[in-house]
Amino acid sequence: MGDIRKIILAYSGGLDTSVILRWLIEQYKAEVIAFVADLGQGEDLEEIKEKAIKTGASKVYVEDLKDEFVRDFVFTALRANAVYEGMYLMGTSLGRPLIAKKQIEIAKKENADAVSHGATGKGNDQVRFELTYYALNPAIGVIAPWREWDFKSRKDLMTYAKSHGIPVPVTKEKPYSCDRNLFHTSYEGGILEDPWAEPPENMFEMTVSPDKAPNEPTYIDIDFEKGVPVRIDGEELSPVELLHKLNKIAGKNGVGRVDMVENRFVGIKSRGVYETPGGTILHAAHRAVESLTMDREVMHLRDMLTPKFSELIYYGFWYSPEMEMLKAAINESQKNVSGTARMKIYKGTVSVAGRRSPFSLYQKDLATFEEEKVYNQKDATGFIRINALRLSIKKLLEKVKGK
User: Fold this and answer.
1) Is residue 111 in a domain?
2) Whole domain around residue 42: which residue ranges?
3) Is 351 one of the annotated active-site residues of the chain?
4) 147 and 250 housed in the same domain
């Protein structure tokens, strides 16, 4: 890396990026511009901006990215039914490429030499940030402090912060890492590093305990157009409004908690605890509308692609040729995924109470067990015999060979 004069730092105001901001200034003798992305984390962004200035940032960009985040990232993943390792809806994974993209845009605007982030050398986020950096600007300098400095733990960072008068949010009462946006909240590290230890109830921010949820179920209707949710109970909402409303409904009913041990891209197993309340409802509702409207072979083929799509998101390949190809396939699969799902939400569970669509492929005349004139059941005899032919031949050959 050549001479570094100006750096764009992805800044959250937390322990890591607060220390990194001061460390970059001291280590590189460079101007550091902080970038704060508003993904709906619910924090006082003005306070974070002031903290960045006090810590040494020459300038602070604060951008509201909530609409773009939900519309272009969350809903794109939803249309693909993307879930990593069967459990994780990837709220953090979806936010990182958007933040990194904006960093590159600011770097161009400011004629900066490098970008920086607060991800550790053990995690996935370093990959998500840096793959995006290089995909969008291969010539940009990249600084990953956790892979450069001599600090060994967050305890070291707290000592450094204290010596430089930097206030940090991590305390002994809550010794774990937390990342939040409009889609989810994630918790890892500290007391959660023991996979046998149950997460403390006072840790959760978006959901009540299912035990304390209302004793009566909540019913809602969600309308989809081409795989995208657009209305709740007939009320048309923007992507941000819709997700926010679903978060409240799901949260008060204890829906959306996940506790899992996952496989990081770098090869380490990690325990993560997640809250994705509204997203959990949307995932089930989207599947319900698809069940009516998607051709069987299209659905099965799409379901074969979904694990790869999820993996690409988790690994950080949002801006890659293979992702563009898969997005095109997903878009094609969603052309007729329009309709309504009625969802029953009760004490941590989500179930489908009903579904309907003007594009429904479900025909009662064909599915009924009652008398009908559309389907001749005798036709199934030939169908079965043709499909059994290769099985019969295999068995006959085994008998000839004496097996």
Assistant:
1) yes
2) 6-65+92-170
3) no
4) no
**69: exposed, middle or buried (C-beta count within 10 Å: 0-12, 13-18, 19+)?**
buried
Residue 62's nearest CA partner among 19, 99, 7 is 99
Catalytic residue among 22, 96, 271, 302: 96
Among the listed residues 12, 18, 79, 125, the single catalytic one is: 125
Tokens of 168: 């940090």
| Residue 46: inside a domain | yes
Tokens of 166: 């930097």
* Spans of the chain, pLDDT less than 50: none
pLDDT of 351-395, one tens digit each?
999 999 999 999 877 656 566 567 788 999 999 999 999 999 999
CB atoms within 10 A of CB 205: 12
E-strand stretches of 81-182: 114-116, 141-143, 177-180
Active-site residue, from 177, 186, 291, 357: 177
44 is catalytic: no
What residues have CB less than 8 Å from 347, skipping those under 6 apart?
210, 211, 213, 214, 215, 253, 254
Query: Do residue 161 and residue 187 come from a single domain?
Result: no
| 163 assigned to active site | no
Catalytic residue check, 125? yes
DSSP states of 178-205: EEE-SS-EEEESGGGGSTTSPPPGGG-S
The structure's pTM equals 0.93
What pLDDT is recorded for position 167? 81
Longest dimension (CA), the chain: 86
**For residues 11 and 192, what is the distance between their CA atoms, to the nearest angstrom?**
24
Distance CA 383, CA 396 (A): 20
